[in-house]
Design a protein that fits this description.
Oligomer: heterodimer
Largest sheet of chain A: 6 strands, mixed
Number of helices of chain A: 9
Number of strands of chain B: 0
Structural class of chain A: alpha/beta
Distance between the termini of chain A: 28 Å
Helix content of chain A: 25-40%
Radius of gyration of chain A: 18 Å
Chain lengths: ~250, ~260
């Protein structure tokens, strides 16, 4: 279970999160929707302990990550996989070395690491590309390599930051299928931050809309589709005229 | 109205400075505690020793050689008819060892090493690679900063020692070939006021320059933001701040040690 309770965060004079509440049940996937700059990635970084809230708390399982000290946070992160918006692969390492990093960190033997890296690369459709460098791959392939790195240690919690942004529709469908497959295989508790509404409806059990620093709506994909909330309608139908100027 | 604008600007600038000092203090604490994480930074330090130290030797030698040549010629020009010519050896040696060798080497490396570190770490920051390190339970300070700072402290004195040799050597060659000075006369000048501390002093300075150049480059890179523009700003600030701190430290060591 992942739970955010009244999480608030300001950067200078800008309030990005203003009392966010969210719960993701064990083994479920919640997609957090919101416009660009609405604070979705900031929210995800709070769950990962990369940012600390000014107010409120974040629980990952029973562990309150928002107020924990560094060593405890590092331990908690061993149970997490984080897919970064632009993959965040290390330029100086090969794809195999990048994907194998979590295993190396966990002290897994080199031979086993090699086998597990090969297996996870096959799962994400990058078999045999261990010796390539990130700069030699396309954007979609880098994203898949980023996903491989996030899941190779079989984490209990998966955090996806805009996994399909900037990808063509076919590659987007490939990534969506991958997210669904990994959810089934790992039984991980996942948050997918995105503004791609079709993607969100495909991969998530529940969908939440972040606007003006708060969760403005939450429900199943079907509830979202049939919602009468003007903000939800504006987002689902992509209509700027329904989106209030002050809604963030 | 103008006075209020000036007051507001001053207040914002003061707040920015306080925020920066706070951030730098927090960063220093993070790096200091990361030193204990020996298993992370030791294997990565050898690479940095090569990049920061060995790769910097050619540019340091280039600067030192021309400094030695110019010092010998200027000394000869100044001393003509008034001071014995073997004082060319005194001036070249003392100037290169006590001041120009370590300071010019430090300034050049501030540009080469400081900018490189700020740009590299800054790029990792804006592309979320530092966040990725954290998510992989690696301490970014131990992984990125400590190896560079240790390498800077260790290699700046070595590079400076090569620069001292090159500067004095080029001064000697210039004296012998262009100033009608014999090797014996030049060496007499070199030995005249030499003290063992003349060698220790530049190496102490160089180690402190290595510390500030690598630490400042890492600091600005670590807090880079706003994409390519932010990385460029970080690199520029690293060079300017590094150069200023080198000159401040130079004065500090002169007051404390001489």
């Amino acid at each position: 279970m992942i739970r955010l309770e009244g999480v608030a965060r300001r950067f200078g004079s800008l309030t990005v999160l203003d009392g966010v509440d969210l719960e993701v049940r064990t083994g479920r996937t919640v997609a957090v929707l919101g416009r660009s700059g609405s604070g979705k990635s900031v929210l995800l970084k709070h769950v990962a302990g990369l940012l600390s809230p000014d107010a409120g708390r974040v629980l990952v399982g029973d562990f309150e990550i928002s107020s924990a000290r560094r060593p405890a946070v590092e331990n908690a992160r061993r149970e997490m996989g984080y897919v970064f918006q632009f993959a965040a692969l290390f330029d100086s390492l090969t794809i195999g070395e990048n994907v194998g990093l979590p295993l190396r960190r966990a002290g897994v033997a080199p031979g086993e690491t090699e086998d597990r890296v090969a297996a996870v690369l096959e799962t994400v459709g990058l078999a045999g590309l261990e010796t390539k460098y990130p700069s030699e791959l396309s954007g979609g392939m880098r994203k898949r390599a980023g996903i491989a790195r996030a899941v190779v240690a079989r984490p209990r919690y998966l955090l996806y930051d805009e996994p399909t942004t900037g990808l063509d529709p076919v590659t987007t469908a490939v990534i969506d299928d991958l997210v669904i497959r990994l959810k089934d295989e790992l039984q991980a508790t996942s948050i997918v931050v995105t503004h791609d509404i079709r993607s969100a409806f495909r991969v998530a059990d529940r969908v939440a809309l972040l606007a003006s620093g708060r969760m403005r709506a939450e429900g199943s994909p079907d509830e979202f589709r049939s919602s009468e909330d003007p903000l939800v309608r504006a987002f689902v139908e992509g209509r700027q005229d329904l989106w209030p100027d002050d809604a963030g | 109205m103008r006075i209020f604008a000036i007051l507001a600007w001053t207040g914002r600038a003061a707040a920015d400075i306080v925020a920066f000092v706070g951030r730098a203090g927090g960063f220093a604490g993070q790096v200091a505690s990361a030193v204990a994480n020996v298993r992370t930074w030791v294997p990565l330090t050898a690479v940095q020793v090569r990049r920061i130290g060995i790769d910097s030797v050619p540019v340091a030698l280039f600067i030192a050689v021309f400094t030695g040549i110019v010092l010998a010629l200027q000394a000869s020009y100044t001393f003509t008819g008034l001071v014995p010519m073997y004082f060319v050896g005194v001036l070249v040696t003392k100037s290169v060892m006590l001041e120009l060798g370590p300071v010019l080497t430090g300034l050049v490396l501030s540009g080469r090493v400081g900018a490189n570190i700020a740009a590299e770490i800054g790029t990792m920051r804006v592309t979320e690679q530092i966040d990725a390190l954290e998510m992989l339970a690696w301490d970014p300070a131990a992984y990125l900063v400590v190896p560079r700072v240790i390498a800077g402290i260790l290699t700046f004195p070595v590079v400076t020692a090569f620069a001292l040799l090159a500067g004095i050597g080029s001064g000697w060659l210039t004296s012998v070939n262009l100033l009608d000075l014999s090797t014996q006369e030049f060496v007499r000048g070199v030995r005249m006021f030499y003290q063992p501390f003349d060698l220790t002093y530049p190496l102490i300075k160089a180690a402190s320059f290595g510390l500030v150049v690598t630490a400042v480059g890492s600091l600005y890179g670590f807090f880079a933001s706003r994409g390519a523009e932010g990385v460029g700003i970080a690199a520029t600030r690293a060079v300017v701040t590094g150069a200023m701190l080198i000159l401040l430290l130079d004065a500090f060591w002169a007051v404390v040690l001489l």
